[in-house]
Amino acid sequence: MKVSTQGLAAKDGPVPVRDLTDHGEEMIERLLAEAKGRLRQPDAGAEALRALIIGVLAAPEGNDPDAWMDLVVAGPGPALKERLASLKAELAAGDGVADDETPPGRRLADLRQELKRRGIDGFIVPRSDEHRGEYVPLRARRLSWLAGFTGTAGMAVVLPEIAALFTDGRYTLQAKAEVDAKLFLTLHSTERPAADWIGANLRPGHKVGFDPWLHTPDELSRLRAGCEKAGGELVACEDNPIDAVWSRQPPAPIAPIVAQEDAFAGKGSAEKRTEIAGQLMADGVDAAVLTLPASIAWLLNIRGGDVAYAPLPLAFAILGADAHVALFLDRRKLTPGLDAHLGDEVRIEDMDRFGPALEALGGEARKVRADPATAPAWVFDRLGAAGANIVKADDPCALPKACKNPVELDGFRAAHLRDGAALVRFLAWLSAAAPKGTLSEIAAAERLEAFRRENDHFRGLSFPTISAAGPNGAIVHYQPSAKTNRTIEPASMYLLDSGAQYLDGTTDVTRTLFIGNGGARPSPEQRANFTRVLKGHIALATARFPRGTSGSQLDTLARQALWRAGLDYDHGTGHGVGAYLGVHEGPQRIAKAPNTVALMPGMVISNEPGYYKQGAYGIRIESLVTVRMSDANPGEERQMLEFETLTWAPIDLALVEVDLLGTEEIAWLDAYHAGVREALSPSLDRETLAWLADATRPLR
Amino acid sequence: MKVSTQGLAAKDGPVPVRDLTDHGEEMIERLLAEAKGRLRQPDAGAEALRALIIGVLAAPEGNDPDAWMDLVVAGPGPALKERLASLKAELAAGDGVADDETPPGRRLADLRQELKRRGIDGFIVPRSDEHRGEYVPLRARRLSWLAGFTGTAGMAVVLPEIAALFTDGRYTLQAKAEVDAKLFLTLHSTERPAADWIGANLRPGHKVGFDPWLHTPDELSRLRAGCEKAGGELVACEDNPIDAVWSRQPPAPIAPIVAQEDAFAGKGSAEKRTEIAGQLMADGVDAAVLTLPASIAWLLNIRGGDVAYAPLPLAFAILGADAHVALFLDRRKLTPGLDAHLGDEVRIEDMDRFGPALEALGGEARKVRADPATAPAWVFDRLGAAGANIVKADDPCALPKACKNPVELDGFRAAHLRDGAALVRFLAWLSAAAPKGTLSEIAAAERLEAFRRENDHFRGLSFPTISAAGPNGAIVHYQPSAKTNRTIEPASMYLLDSGAQYLDGTTDVTRTLFIGNGGARPSPEQRANFTRVLKGHIALATARFPRGTSGSQLDTLARQALWRAGLDYDHGTGHGVGAYLGVHEGPQRIAKAPNTVALMPGMVISNEPGYYKQGAYGIRIESLVTVRMSDANPGEERQMLEFETLTWAPIDLALVEVDLLGTEEIAWLDAYHAGVREALSPSLDRETLAWLADATRPLR
């Protein structure tokens, strides 16, 4: 997938909050009585159980809606499970996590009053949470609560008389649709950066507050310059003023944390910790602060479920040069046996011990590594004030996490076989269903999800499916909603970008199809543009490059055919993909913007050039690839790298203009299609196989 | 040319210094008497005249060896010229600028003693001068004086008991050959950066000195970190301790500064100044400090001759937001009429007024722009200490200078017609001369220079010619010397990288030839590798790309064919070229390393992929190109840019393996060769034309 928006979609959405009914109180008491002696928190009373379940309601439901019950009683029996399910339903209906019915104007006014009370004049509301996740838990959706904007990137600035929402080009239309123009100006964040706008609109002497948990030091230096330009001041708030006025703010999410078994992780946590600690030691660094849940999950071989679409446990950690880890999280999330999995070298601490732990490092004048591009300013402030010697450097887990080990790569390959089979079953089904002209975007996405759900190790989607008919395909971050849902019309283009999380790997694939109806053919322009995108895809898929080459250096290969025709696309060409972690991960990236991270063997990255004709159609062809050593031919002087394509799914031949392809490009496409047949045939029924044989017929 | 080394080559080299003879004294007195009343410095006595001529001797001789005489008397007659020439010869023979006969060990010991006297323990000796030029005047060759190393990039660090010379990969062999290993370790500057080495070798409490004129703030922060890591300190020296012990250090060079006429410059200085001042004003900046001679020469439409190969006047300048300029230089360099050319808005000041002028800006708390990547730390220190509000940003002339105006582009085209004709005359001559097997690299280079010298507006070479036979071609920065001079053997490869300065433009072209001898043919490997380099050259020459694209994004196009064969080259693919200024200029660049400067219409840049087989041969194909708008075909959505090739010279067809070229590549080569014939035919004699017709015969 290209980029991901996330609305308050059904499974992941808010649950009404009301007071607990008498009936609910009664249910809790009965349950406590029955579970007595087996409770995982032995002295937990009604209030604790209620809080736990409300935390569960503040997390996405996940693939196994009963998994949370293990947090109450290890291995509950059927009767207890039924009771727990009823209680959760009761709390969801009568209490729990709720939509706030306060009208947007009131929310803004309440915030301004709170600011006044604190003696500050403005406040900055980013979309980010403390962990810089692409998906944030309900509790952290402050920007959505305040301004109604639900995109995955944006920032509001509230001043005494005016307020503005800043979003990038992907979200300008969505922002205008979602946000009340009487309350917020909506501005383009690159044409009119927030810092500049503050510089022009803040009154001299005025103070603008920010929450130091929600900004990196790099971000703050720009915002501070804007305030100072206006003769104002940027000031840190001890606690977030939105939390003070958002009366129905959900609690932090509680989703079970489970072990990621070595059979999938490929390397034990102790070995990972020892390797990275060795690097810290070599650099003379005493400890590294980890604030990204994906890094912590990778390092400790654990997975969670606190946010949608990625199995992440929200937590902080400090890795010492002795390979020991202090892990800061809500202990209630730990499933039975997880302590043993983590072992003696991982000390579990409550979230509120994170600050004191940073201060202790400072008090001992330790040399502490933290990442100024991802860690909250709060971390640096706390370390700095306590006297730590801060080493600003990237998250030490980022690069080793990106370079998958052989077991992880085998997992990716296996997951892609299953995922490809599900997609091909869907495509075969679609080829019969869509020409009838009654299938909606949402119905198609649901059908595809159902096929995937049948797969082993399926754990959910890896992002909201982009099922985009006709002109909706030209909206790069489109996600169908009840409001926008189009029928997939015969004789039109259909763009489908989807992926899944499996225990052994994460998938992300885009195919663009021409929906036939017996006779219709795509227009010459559609075929030519599809073929140009395909040429870019093939150029990247077949690239060879020396060690040290970054994704930025390869990006142009994917665009060259489009550029020759005066066309281009306004998104990156490839993003890293985690191993049953986030579908977007760094540090490598294929894009126009400079990135100095070399592509290294084992990295998994997407290959997804596209073309978008506004109001008409969109084209994107995306497969995941992994970097591997390239076999040397005689006379070669340097070790070259190349890509192995992991994704198996046919590329729509109806859209290919063979005359625009060179001999080698045709050979690649035929070989790829032969690979698709070979890879997927064992898992497909005869009818699907017949469809696949035609869909992958050789061109030459 | 790729990169340039500069030894103490003949014309540019040191001149012996001895005391003035009686005969010399007598000559000066007679000359002063004769020129009385016409002297440009009316009250100049013998000492002033002697100092002027010694300054002239400390500058390169230049294309017109008598031009300096205008600095004594405007338009001297033949008799006076003869006297002046004799006097200069007398001073050169008996006095003037000299080679220092102090042995290297003594120099290093003298420096250490001087450091001790000053209470410091070490000193850093960079190759750079105050103006960060690729070529530096004799006076600034401190690294060469101290360590004997004559490459264009390097740095020595002297500590009490050890000293080290740091050079990049280009110069490791040369450094080992030139430097006394008993005095200096020679280290690779990327594998063992100077800052790291200092960190490991400096004793706690020790002080390392540096000359703040010779380092940028960016450089110093790394060196400072190294010193502090070792518990030492980096301290600025008021004046350079090498200057204190280099008894025969030449004076600053004195070369005539002349106007660059509007007919070549295309835009008056007032207009340039107004445009850039407008930008400063818009940014709220009061003044910009200019320390790069090329920027000052461009801004004021002047040219000088203080260093070799580029017509640069060593000077500093301050451009105000009112479009006025304070120009700091040695007034003796001004030719008659230059004051009028500069006009009232350019105030000429002595060099020693530069510091007070910076302090005055600080005293008024002005907002002053300076470039931390090119301006000396001294400038920032002076501004900062005086209270200026320093805005760190790039040199404001860099980008407008890089985007040539239509008159400059026409000049480039005209210069390339003349330069191409000279090169073709040479190549035709070479095709007859070389097969005899007696021609040396140096003789070939001299013959080519002689052809160029006949051209209108010729002002000298733009860099030392790389005339490299056989295995010498694989040494990327090769320059023939008496010691290395090889015979150009029949049946071998010959790489020729050369260029010239013309009043209307600067050239830089590389062609690689197979020297025939009747029957010999290049090997299949040589043809294949040449053709791969050619494919890269063509891919870049024919690239189309949207506005905003940087050279880094295009670099891979030039390497792709080599990468497919497991080959690569270890240098950039394209450098900017000045308009009768430096042959290497920024800010644009085509290279693997990230560079965010977009290629813009009017920029001139080289297209020079290569391949080097150690000990065997080198291949490089280089033409200059300019960026222009690309005509749009129907259906195109975005304004595309493309390159226009400026260089006209045949590409050796004997080295082309036609089977490795695609149809479009063959079409490009045939069209280019037809262009060469069309462009150059009017200036060539019949015999050369016949040679050219064969050398450019169509492949299809």
Which two chains touch over the largest interface?
Answer: A-B, 33 and 33 residues
Overall shape of chain A: it is: globular
The N- to C-terminal Cα distance of chain A equals 31 Å
Q: Mind telling me the C-alpha Rg of chain A?
A: 26 Å
Q: What is the structural class of chain A? A: alpha+beta
- State the major sheet of chain A: 6 strands, mixed
- Give the beta-strand count of chain A: 28
Number of helices of chain A: 22
Helix share of residues of chain A? 25-40%
Average pLDDT metric of chain A:
93
Low-confidence blocks of residues of chain A: 1-18
User: How much of the residues of chain A is beta strand, in percent?
Assistant: 15-25%
- Write down the oligomeric state: homodimer
Strand order of the largest sheet of chain A: 4-3-2-1-5-6
List its traits.
6-stranded mixed beta sheet; homodimer; 700 residues; 36% helix; alpha+beta
